[in-house]
């Protein structure tokens, strides 16, 4: 818990030692599992890292982040450690609430890519199982929450990481997305993480498979089913891509790549369109007037509100129950 607290604040061991005015070797010993912290040292940690004393005595463990990162580039280990630590805090918080509420497990099928043939077929199978209407999905977060998948927005401190999932108590899926995401990228990230959850969580995929690529293929088919979008992908131009973005609620570039994957656009045509993106300076940031509104998550907030109401807890007492300072609790969950 000392490690999680330190990393969640973005500190190295040396930086923690300097902040606490102790040696680096003493700071290192604070994170060893056999050390028993005295009250004075716990208070010092609490003051430095801005967590109540009880935070450091929570039961549980830090789960490693494995296959589910969706990121755009190489990300510094320190940044990833901070993201992972904060996700573990969300997980520990929700495990406490979910256990107390006797929450129903998510209704998630296990879709084996090997048995079904392709990630795209897995996406179509899930749309059928969940009875999703044909065409563009209006609100993907609403669908996920209807199936008890817990969604959280978090400050990642970088634009290079979009999201990831983690399991609470090994049975409650939590998808955490970067608060900075625009609506189109948020929706694709949710679909990408959903792909990992249904295709890879319980099927023991081999190491030779590119699971990130499979999740991308799943997300593209889930949001833009081939049979339903093909007719829209003829004679593409920037103005037409802008109109299709509003219809399908994905980025213009995602539409270009989708058209190329479905052989509705040759490689040369794809390169030409992407060159136009560069010329118009919209490759990294598509026109703001075309922005897809970000989707709002409700389930986690409703869950915490229900628990507070049931237990008749004030905000301060709810924060204490989760081993957080009140300001930290509000920053995390008052979205």
Write up this protein.
The chain folds into two domains: 1-57, 434 Repressor (Amino-terminal Domain); 113-290. Helices cover 53% and strands 7% of the residues. The protein is built from 17 helices and four strands. A four-stranded mixed beta sheet has the order 1-3-4-2.
Short description:
This protein is an alpha+beta fold.
User: Residue-averaged pLDDT, rounded?
Assistant: 92
> What does the radius of gyration come to?
22 Å
Order of helices and strands: HHHHEHHHHEEEHHHHHHHHH
Order of adjacent strands in the largest pleated sheet? 1-3-4-2
Largest sheet: 4 strands, mixed
Tally of helical segments: 17
Q: Into how many domains do the coordinates divide?
A: 2
Q: Count all strands and give the number.
A: 4
Kindly name the structural category: alpha+beta
Quaternary class: single chain
Shape: globular
Given as residue ranges, the uncertain stretches (5+ residues, pLDDT < 50) are: none
Key terms:
single chain; 335 residues; alpha+beta; 434 Repressor (Amino-terminal Domain); 4-stranded mixed β-sheet
